Fold each of these.
Amino acid sequence: MKNEKDKKETLGKVGEFGFIEKIRTAMKAKNPNVVLGIGDDAAIFKPAKGHELIFTTDMLVEGRHFDFKWISPWQLGAKTMAVNVSDCAAMGAKPTAAVVSLGVPKDYPVANLEAFYDGLKSWGEQYGAQVVGGDTVGSDKFVVNVALVGEVETGRALRRSGAKAGDALFVTGTLGDSAGGLHSLLHPSEKGKETASLLVKRHLTPVPRFNTGRVLSSKKLASSAIDISDGLSSEAHHLCGESGVGAEIHEEALPISPSLAHYCGERGLDPLDFALNGGEDYELLFTVPLPRISEAVQKLPAETGVAVKSIGRMVPKSKGIALITRKGERKPLAAKGFDHFKGQL
Amino acid sequence: MKNEKDKKETLGKVGEFGFIEKIRTAMKAKNPNVVLGIGDDAAIFKPAKGHELIFTTDMLVEGRHFDFKWISPWQLGAKTMAVNVSDCAAMGAKPTAAVVSLGVPKDYPVANLEAFYDGLKSWGEQYGAQVVGGDTVGSDKFVVNVALVGEVETGRALRRSGAKAGDALFVTGTLGDSAGGLHSLLHPSEKGKETASLLVKRHLTPVPRFNTGRVLSSKKLASSAIDISDGLSSEAHHLCGESGVGAEIHEEALPISPSLAHYCGERGLDPLDFALNGGEDYELLFTVPLPRISEAVQKLPAETGVAVKSIGRMVPKSKGIALITRKGERKPLAAKGFDHFKGQL
C-alpha cells in the first residue's frame, strides 16, 4: 500500500527523468525478442525469421476519448493497449513491442501514472507486447499515444482488401455493447443498473480478438479483416471500399447481447442503431470464402473461445452496401460510425 | 496554388476519413521494404536480413514544444520527423517506417495539415523513413506523435551504456544554437537580426546527425552514443549513468558557433550556459576508445560532412562528472538541461 508521502508525489516533483527511472524498473524486459528496453535513445528488438512486421498507432485524448470521471488510470492503460492490440489482431499478427508517449499535466499524481503503466503492461503482456520505450512530456490535458509493432508469418497478414463477391461476412462477439455502456455513462439512471454495468465494462475495458485474428491468418481462413472501432456500418464501408466489392448485411443476423437488448428495451432505444453505428466494439469483421465457411463456423469458436456469426455476404460493387431488414427490404447502409471531426454519434 | 475554396477547407468539413484519403495519396509507398502503407488496420514491412530493429517515439505538444506564431506547419512536420530520426541516428540505425498520430482542433485548415505532412514526408524521405500509417483525432491543442522503426546491423547499435574510463568524449557540430534561437524568439530585438535568424533556423529545423551515427555504428568507431535533446549537461549525465563512468568536459573545447558567440556578446549573455544547458541541439554526444581517436578525428568529418570535436574524456565513476574551466579549475557539472516537468530552462 502507498503511504501518504507517495500519494502526494506529482510528476512536477519527481521530474521527467525520475519518473522514467520508476517506469523502467516496472517495465523490465521479458520478451526474448527484445534486445534492449527502456532507457536508451531507442529500443532494440529482433525480427522473427519468416515473418513480416506490422506497425500501428492510436492516440487517446482526455475529454474526447475518455473522461477520468469514468475511467481509472489503470483501465485507461489497459484500454490504450487493447485498442492497439485490436489493430494488430485485425492483421492476424502477434504483438511484439510497444512505445508509449504521454502528455501529462504537471500536477498529475505519480501513483496514478504508475497505475496507468501497470494497466498498459498487464494488458500488453497477455498478448506478448512489451513496453520498450516512450516519451513523457508536459500537457494541459492527458493525452496518450501507443505505437505497436507485431509480427505475422510472411504473406499471411489479413488485409482489408482481400474480400471477393460471394464471400461470407462474419463478426466476432456482440455489437453495440460499448456504445450502450457509453450511453449509460452519459445518461445515468436507476433503471437496470446491473445490465448497464456490464455494458460499461465493455466500453472501459474492451478485449481485443487476438486469438481469432491469429487463427484466421495462420489457417488462411479469412480473405479480409478489419476491427470495428468506429461502428459496423463505417467499417463495412472501409472493407468494401478497399476490396472493391459491395455487401449485404442481414439485420436479423446481427449479434446483440441480452444486456444491450434489455438496456435498450427499458429505455425505448433501438439496439439496431447501437449495433450498426456504435463505436469501440473492437470486434473483428472478416470475410470467409465459401468453401471455408463450415470450418469457420464449427472450429473457430472452439479454438478461440470467442463466438463468431455470419451476418451477410459480399456482393459485386455495383450492388452497393445494403442492410436487409427483418421484413426483407433492401436499404442502403450509410456509414454512420464515429468520425472524430464530424462527430455524428 | 490552392484556390480560395481549398483554403477554407477545415478538418471538421472533410472529416477524418476524407482527410486520411488525402494523406494516403500524398504518402504513396516508395521504400521497397514497405509491403503495405496507409489504409489498413496496420502497415506491413519486411525486416532486412542480418539486422536488428530499433523503435523510438517522440511527442510534441502545442504551447510546450512549439508555437504556431513561430513555426510553420511544414517546419513542424520536418522537425517532428527530425527529432525521431535523431534518436535513430544516436543508435547508429537507418530509419525504415514511421506512424504519425495527430490531435487536431476541428477548425484547423486542411491546407495546413497537408503542409505538415509534406514537411514530415520530405524529411523522412531524406533518411529513408516512410510514413506508413497513423491516427487522426480531435483535440483542443495541436499534438503530434511520431513513432519510428529503423534497422541496424545486428549487434552494432550504439548504446548509451558502452563508454569506458579512458574513452574520449566527442560531440558533433556546435552546441547551444537552438537554445539561442529560442531565446531570440522569446526576446525579440533589433540587434543582430541576421545572426539571430541563423540560430532560429537551427531551433525550428534541426538536422539529425544521421550520417555520423551510421559511420559510428557500421565502423564500430564509438563505444557509446546519445543525442543531445535536453542539453549537453543532462545528456552527459545520462551517458555516464548508463555506462557507470564519470566524465571531464573541457570548457574551452566546447564548440560554440560564431553566430551564438556574437548573439550572446551583443546581449551580455554567457554562451557557455547555452552550450551546456540549452535544449534541442540534436547533435550527437559519443565516446571513442583511445586507439580509434585519430580515425574519428581525421575520417569522420570527411565521410559525413559534419564536424566533430573532442570535448573531454571519460573517467572512473568515483571522479564524478566535472567541467574543467578555462582557468583549469575542476567544477562538478550539474544536469541543468530541460526537464518537461521541472522546466529549469
Amino acid sequence: MADDRAIAPVRMAMVGGGPDSFIGPVHRMGAELDRRIRLVAGAFSSDAARSRSTGLGYGLDEDRIYSDWRAMLAAERTRPDGAELVAIVTPNHLHLPVALAAIAAGFHVASDKPATATLAEALELQRALEGSGSVYALTYTYSGYPMVRRARAMVASGAIGTVRKVVVQYPQGWLATPIEQQGDKQAAWRTDPQRAGVGGCIGDIGVHAFHLAEFVSGLHVDQFVADLAATVPGRTLDDDCNLLLRFGGGARGVLIASQISTGEGNDLSLHIYGSKAGLIWHHDEASRLTVRHADGRMEVLQAGAGPQGMGARLPAGHPEGFIEAFGNIYCDVADAIRGQRELIDDRVPGIKAGVRSMRFVEQAVMASAQGAGWVALERDGA
Amino acid sequence: MADDRAIAPVRMAMVGGGPDSFIGPVHRMGAELDRRIRLVAGAFSSDAARSRSTGLGYGLDEDRIYSDWRAMLAAERTRPDGAELVAIVTPNHLHLPVALAAIAAGFHVASDKPATATLAEALELQRALEGSGSVYALTYTYSGYPMVRRARAMVASGAIGTVRKVVVQYPQGWLATPIEQQGDKQAAWRTDPQRAGVGGCIGDIGVHAFHLAEFVSGLHVDQFVADLAATVPGRTLDDDCNLLLRFGGGARGVLIASQISTGEGNDLSLHIYGSKAGLIWHHDEASRLTVRHADGRMEVLQAGAGPQGMGARLPAGHPEGFIEAFGNIYCDVADAIRGQRELIDDRVPGIKAGVRSMRFVEQAVMASAQGAGWVALERDGA
Amino acid sequence: MADDRAIAPVRMAMVGGGPDSFIGPVHRMGAELDRRIRLVAGAFSSDAARSRSTGLGYGLDEDRIYSDWRAMLAAERTRPDGAELVAIVTPNHLHLPVALAAIAAGFHVASDKPATATLAEALELQRALEGSGSVYALTYTYSGYPMVRRARAMVASGAIGTVRKVVVQYPQGWLATPIEQQGDKQAAWRTDPQRAGVGGCIGDIGVHAFHLAEFVSGLHVDQFVADLAATVPGRTLDDDCNLLLRFGGGARGVLIASQISTGEGNDLSLHIYGSKAGLIWHHDEASRLTVRHADGRMEVLQAGAGPQGMGARLPAGHPEGFIEAFGNIYCDVADAIRGQRELIDDRVPGIKAGVRSMRFVEQAVMASAQGAGWVALERDGA
Amino acid sequence: MADDRAIAPVRMAMVGGGPDSFIGPVHRMGAELDRRIRLVAGAFSSDAARSRSTGLGYGLDEDRIYSDWRAMLAAERTRPDGAELVAIVTPNHLHLPVALAAIAAGFHVASDKPATATLAEALELQRALEGSGSVYALTYTYSGYPMVRRARAMVASGAIGTVRKVVVQYPQGWLATPIEQQGDKQAAWRTDPQRAGVGGCIGDIGVHAFHLAEFVSGLHVDQFVADLAATVPGRTLDDDCNLLLRFGGGARGVLIASQISTGEGNDLSLHIYGSKAGLIWHHDEASRLTVRHADGRMEVLQAGAGPQGMGARLPAGHPEGFIEAFGNIYCDVADAIRGQRELIDDRVPGIKAGVRSMRFVEQAVMASAQGAGWVALERDGA
C-alpha cells in the first residue's frame, strides 16, 4: 500500500452466475473484496433477459452484459478497458470450452472446481495452457481459509512431526432426497452426467476433500480403495463416497464425501496426526484450529492472532468466512496476474491440481464400479 | 434485481480509516460487498502521505484522496460525480464535527459508534438532522447479523412469549494490560478522555451491548445500577462495566462489558428468556441461534436456512461474519438513501439510538462515580 | 490402600430421600462410590410405606428402615453397628432440627445445602457445633468437581495473577411455569416459604453460585447490589436473581441465578479473570477448564490429565459427572471423620460456609425488597 | 422397588483389577452404583501383596482376597454367601480360561472386552456356555450410555428412516509413542501378542466401534475392506485401523479406530444417516444426541429429558459418565441373573456379540495383512 501510484484492479468478466447461481455471487464478492479485482463484464446466462437482470443488479454497463460467452470474449479482448481475467462459474461441462476459448484469446482464467468434466478434458486444458501466458487458477475454496493455511504451514515446519494419518470428511445432506426431480436447478445439473461429468459427489465435493488433504499434509495419495454409491433411487452418479487412502511416505487416511448425510450442511473437516501432535479443523468453526499435543495439552489457535500472512483481515474474535476465503484466493490470483506467477501451483491450485483431481475422480469412479480393492493413483510428472 | 436499468451505487467518501485503522477497512469492505455502495473518495488521515497511501491502495484517483476532511467535503459536494455518503470512522471526538459539516453540506452520514463523545453532542447532532434531508445511520454492527435479526423477529412475533430476562455480555481482554502506554494506537485514543469522550469501555463496547439488548428484546431499559471501574492502573476511563437492568414491562437483566477480561476476544453474547422459550446467541458462533423451549426441547437454527430477509447471502453451512454484518447495514443505508427512509430507526440504528446510547453512557458513568443505586434512564420523546 | 487392614467404611444413615427425591439417591451413590461410606439405615419418608419401599430398594435390613428420624437417631446411636454419619437430604426447613438432634446424639452430619432455612438457624447450628465432636459438611456439589478444584488451585498459585473479575451464572428454566400448582413436589416445597425458608432461587441455587465464586477466587464478597424477583405470578419467593458484587481486594463481579431462564438445564458457569489469564468453567462441560492467556493463547485443560489430587478417578476422555463430584466431597467427609478434620472449612464447606451463605441469602432478600443499592455483606469472625 | 422384601444384591468376585488397573475399579464402581451388585471377593493380582492391598482398600474380608483365581472360584462356590458373578478384568489372554472355569463352576460371568484373544477361543467359550445356566455378558461400555440407547431406539422406531450410512470413529493418541518400552503396563500388554491376542488396536477399541455401529444401526456388517497398520516402530500388532464397511440392506460405512491419533483422548463418535434424518453422538458430549433433519432442522436431545428407560439416573443438565454407563450394563446383568435372561444378546452384549467381534477382529487382521480388497464378514447362525 506504500506504492506511489494507485493499484489498478484486475478487470474480470464472468461466465455463468445467473439468477439461480449460488457460487457466481460468491466469486464476485470474493474477487472484489480487497479491491484487487473488479467485475466489468459478464455472460451470466445464455438467456439474455436473465443475464441482463444479473448484470444490471451489479451495476454493469449494459453493453458489457452478454448472453453469449463467445461474444463476450471477442468483445472484451478488443476493448481498451476490456476484461483481463475470466471467472468460470458454470456447470462442469462448460469449464473446458470456456477455459480453452479464454486462453486462446489471451485471458487469464479463474475456474470453479472441478477443472473439467473428465480427465481427458483436464489434460487437454493442461496442454492448452503450456506455452500460453495465461494464469490459470482453480478455486479450491478451503485452501483460502487462514486456519487451513496455518495448518499447512505448521505441518511444513515440522511442528506436528511426521504425518501418520489424515482423515478428511465432507458430509452434506442436501441430496438425501431426489430434489433434482423436483425442480432444484443446483441438484439437476450435478446429478446429470451430461453436465456434471464422470463424478457426482466425488467431483463436486470429493475433490475439495482430496485437495485439502494433500494441500495441508504436503503428501500425495499413492493408493486408495474407493466405495462410491448412487444411494438415492434414480441416480446414476455417485452421491456418497468412502475411501481408504495411503500416502507416499506411509501415512494412511480416510476420505469421506457424501451428499446423502441427511441434515448435514457443509462441515468439511480435517484431522491430521503427526508423531508429535494432531491438528483438527472444522469448516463450522473455520476461524479455529485445534492442536492436540502428545503430552495431552490442547490448544485452540484463532485466526487473526498468531503469525501474519495467513489471510486473516481482522483481529481474533471477528469471524470471517466463505467469501473471505474466496477473497484470499482471488488476491493471490491478482498477484499472480500482476507478476507473481509462482503463487500458482504453490498456494493457489492451478492446472496441476486440476489434472490430479480429475485423475482421482476418474480412477475412483472406475475402481468403485469394478469393485476393486487397492488401486494406485498415478502421479503426473511433477 | 429485475429492474431494467443498472442500479447506480451510492458514492461514498470516508473520513478516517488510515493505515493503522481496524474499522475503516471493515466499513469499506462491508459497504462495497453488495455493489450498492462504492468508495470514491477519502480523507483517511490528516497526514497527507498516510492518507495517500491508503487511498492508492484502494485504487482511488489521486485527486480524490484528501488529508483534510473539510476540503474533501467542499470538493466532493461540487463534483458531478461527487460522494453522496460520508462514512465516519475516526476516533469518537471527531464524530460530531465531521457529521455536522457533512450534514450541512448535504451529505448522508454513516457513522461508527458511539454517535458522539458526549450526550450534549448527540443532542446537537439530533437537532442538526431535524429538517435536513440527510440519512444518518450508526453502524451497530451486531444488528446486522442474520441470526440477531432473526432473534428480533422471533421475539416480535411472540415466539418466546413475554420477555422476562435479558443478559447481554461483551467480554474483551485486549486492555487487560496498559498497552496504551506501549504504543498501541487503538488503545491510546480509547483510553484518552479527550478523544474517547466520557465513556471508556462503556462507550466503546457497552453501547453495542446496550443496543443489542434493546434491539432484540424490543424493550427499553428504564432503570439500572452501574458499577464501572478503571481497573488497570493509570486509567481514568472505565475498562470494566457491570450493570443491573430493569426494562419497561418488568423484565430484568444484566449487562456486562469489559475490556479487562483477560484472554477474551470478541464474544458478545445475548441470552433472552421469555415465558415460552429462551434464545441464545454468541458472536463466536454468529451463524447459529439456539432456542430452548420450556418443554426441554433445544433447537439450533442456522443462518441461510429458514425465513428469507434476515441478511444471509449464503446457504446454511457457509460461514459469514463481521464484514457481511456490516454489509447488511450498509445495504439498508443504501436503500434508505435511495428512498426507503423508514429503514432508519427501525432496522438500522439512527440518531435516536445515538442519543439514547449516549444518554445511557453518560448516566452510567455518572451514577457509577456517585456510587448510586438504582437510577432511572430517561426516555427521549419517542 | 497399602494399609494392612481392611478400611472400615463410615456407616451412614439418611434422613429424607424417599421415592420422589432427586438428591437423596445422588447422596447415596456419591457417598458409596469409593467404598469409604456405606448406607446402613434411613428415615427416607415420614410415610412408613414410602420409607420402607425406598429402604428395601437399597437392600437395607428392615429393622433399619425408619419413618421417624428421631426414632432412627435413638436406635442407631445405641447399636454397636450403628450409623456414624447422618446425611440430611430433606427440604430446607428440616435441616436445622435434624442436624441439632444428630449432633446432640453424637453423629457426624453431611447436609444438603442451604445449611438452614434462615440465618438465625444457621447461627444456632454453629453454636451447637462448637465444642461438639461432630464433623459437619455441606454438600456444595460443584466444589467437588476436579476442574473446579483445579481452577481454585491455579488461582491460589498465582497462575492467573491478581483476580479482577468474577462472573458466576446459574441459569435454570424449570420454574418458568407455575409447576408447583400442578403437582410437582420438587417445585412445591422450593416455592413455599414455610419449607424453603427466606430465599427461593437465591437459597436453592444462588448459594451454589455464591459459594463457587468465593471458593475458586479465594476472595470474599464485601458488597453487593441485589435484584431479586418473583417473576411467575403467584410466587412470594424469588425465582430470578441478579447481583453486582464487589470483593475484598477490589475485584468486581456479577452473580446471576435464575429458575425462570426458560429452557435452561443446569449449566452453572464461572468466569474468573486475573491480570495474567482468565479461567472459564461450565458445568455442561464439567471435565474441561479453559484458560485464556493475556497473549491470546487459549488452552483447554482436561480432568484426568495434569496434576493429581483434583478428584478425577479416570484418565482424560472418560467423562465423570455429578455423582462423582458428590463422591469427592463424601471422600473428604470420610477422611475428616477418620481424623483429617482440617479438610472441613478448607476443601469441604462446613458451618462457616453455611452461616456465610445464609447471611448472604438473608441480606440479599432484604436489600432487594427494600430496593437498596450497595449493601455491605458482613464477614463472620474468621 | 415397591417389592415387600429387600432386594438382595448379586454377589460379585473380581479377577484382575489390581493396583495399576484402569478398568477394574470402573467395573467395581459401575457394578455397585445401584446397589444391585456387591463386590464380596477378588483375585486382583497373582501377586498376593498386591491383591491384598487392593482388596483391603475395598474393605473386603481378608479371607476373601485371593491371589489365585482358581482358588477363589473353588472357595467361593462352596461358601453359603459365596460370589454368584465373576467379573473378568484381566488382560485378554486370560479371558477364556477364567470364563471357562467360572462357567464350569456355575458362576455367571461379566467380562471386559474383547471376549477372548482369538476367534477359536470365542467359539470355545460359546460352546461352553451352551447348556450351562450361566449368564455371560460383555461390557461394551458405550452401549450403556443413555443417548446411545436412545439413538438405537430411534433407529429401531423408524425415526430416521432407512439407514444409509454409518460412520464410527474411535481416535486415541496414547500409543502415539512407544510407551510400552518405557514401563507403561497398560500399553505393555496391549502391544504384546501373547497377552492381547491377534488384534492390537482393532481388538482393544476397534471392537467397541464395531459393536456400537451394529448396536445402534440394527444392521450387520456384511463386507469390509481393512487397512490395519503397526505405525510405531517396534510394534507387531496394529495401532491404527481404517475400514470401509457395507451393511446388509445396502448401507455403507466407515470405521476408524486408532491409538496413534496424537493428542486424542477417548472421543468415540457415531454418525448414522437415514433417509429422513441423521443422528450424531460423541463420547465427549455423551449426554447429548444431535438430530439433523432432512428439512434442515437441528435438535439437541439430552439425557434425563425425554423417554424413560434409557438409563439416565438424573435430570437433564446433570452430567453422568463412564461409570454410570458401566452401571447401566451391570443393572441389566443383575436383572438377567435374577431372571430376565432375555436382556442378554438384546440390550446387553453376550457371547454372540463376543464371537462376532472376534470374527471381525480376526478377519480384519488377516485381510489387511494380505492386502485384500472387499472381504465378506461371515454371519454366525443367528
